[in-house]
């Protein structure tokens, strides 16, 4: 993978950016909690253009890197320890790990209790947590899909199947042919208005498969503030994707 080095304006620190060339028409810049920076660009874009674009975005990159540094170990999902937390529906949920014979995960108030034989076994803790989280995500996202479904039902669209899986760069995807939408495993970190935006976006694709003018007109009709919701979701809500 190609790499480009840029200097951050405030710290004067030099960082590397990975260039990911894809079959796409626009570019996409992502900063991850791991401090990895990836610029996805069309195959034919010159590297000089990428360097200039990244220089223009250097202040934003620096702010994102600093934000992730401040939240290291807080509302994070790379490690589960007592005192660490994760966002769930916009609220900070504190992890509480206990040693017990019966392995289970449950939530009470703003705490997620993980009971297992060895709380120091991160692999086991993760397996227990992710199994529980997936069930919560499926239940919540299924319910919200059913809430918004009547909007497209009147056009003769059958209720889509809802699947949940880990996705690194997408909040959701839609397969019209299979009659299914797939939603990001960690989407339930966000508050409900932002979850609803993703679900309505994907459901709208059953009427308008592409991001056409008609697609956005339909979306705006039922959710006039979708742009604000998308902006907040992409930039502020969910860390760890």
TrEMBL record:
Residues 25-235 form the YgjP-like metallopeptidase domain. Pfam families: YgjP-like. This is M48 family metallopeptidase. The lineage of its organism: Bacteria, Bacillati, Bacillota, Clostridia, Eubacteriales.
């Amino acid at each position: 993978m190609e790499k480009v080095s840029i200097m951050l304006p405030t710290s004067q620190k030099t960082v590397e950016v990975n260039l990911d060339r894809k079959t796409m028409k626009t570019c996409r810049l992502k900063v991850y909690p791991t401090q990895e920076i990836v610029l996805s660009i069309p195959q034919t874009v010159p590297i000089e253009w990428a360097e200039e674009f990244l220089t223009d975005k250097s202040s934003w990159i620096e702010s994102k890197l600093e934000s992730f540094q401040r939240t290291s170990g807080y509302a994070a999902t790379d490690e589960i320890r007592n005192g660490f937390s994760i966002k769930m529906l916009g609220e900070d949920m504190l992890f509480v790990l206990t040693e017990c014979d019966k392995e289970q995960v449950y939530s009470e108030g703003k705490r997620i209790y993980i009971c297992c034989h060895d709380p120091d076994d991160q692999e086991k803790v993760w397996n227990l947590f992710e199994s529980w989280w997936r069930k919560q995500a499926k239940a919540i996202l299924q319910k919200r899909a059913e809430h918004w479904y009547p909007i497209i039902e009147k056009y003769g669209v059958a209720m889509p199947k809802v699947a949940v899986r880990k996705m690194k760069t997408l909040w959701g995807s839609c397969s019209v042919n299979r009659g299914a939408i797939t939603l990001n495993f960690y989407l339930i970190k966000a508050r409900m208005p932002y979850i609803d935006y993703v679900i309505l976006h994907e459901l709208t694709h059953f009427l308008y498969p592409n991001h056409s003018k008609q697609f956005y007109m339909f979306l705006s009709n039922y959710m006039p503030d979708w742009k604000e919701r998308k902006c907040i979701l992409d930039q502020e809500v969910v860390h760890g994707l």
